[in-house]
Amino acid sequence: MLRLLLVSMLLSVTAVAADPIAIDTAHSSASELATKSQLEHLIAEYNLGRWSYTHKIVIDEKSIPHSHPVLTLHTRHLKQDDELLSTYVHEQLHWFFVANDQDTDAAISDLKKLYPKVPVGYPDGANDEQSTYLHILVCYEEGQLDDRILGSDRTREVMNFWAGDHYRWVYRTVLQDGPKVADIIATHKLQPVEAQ
Asked: C-alpha 189: how far from its chain's center?
């Protein structure tokens, strides 16, 4: 009986791990369809399925990228592979941190001691204080995964681009204080593991 249960569990895990990433478009516009094709290519080329914690993606030219309830990307980075890949990784990481909410909350408590005052709102912070702290974790790990996927030179270019674009304070902080953030992430065992 135990053997049958273990085999059944193994088959369930294998089925989940093999779930394909489904990418839909919101309006089926030319830019959405082209971004979908670009993302499909990147997922295959870089084996991004291993860093995909949700498998349902929507490309919406009228939306700002967000992770929940459905991971949604825009068409801004059409023909900018590294930026699109990094945005995809960023939004996937939100799913990782949500799945590890207690450890994430504990890490945020430590970040509040390190950074008692953080910016809120575009272009330097996120929508609210809690989200700015969360984005320190997400953006740090985004850089770490980008480095594993793209290499250090391309990752440095992408992270420097973000540091001048949005979440500017967050990305600059991650670039400047990476080892401090890494210590907090390690303390709370929040290094992302391959999803598949």
From this structure: 17
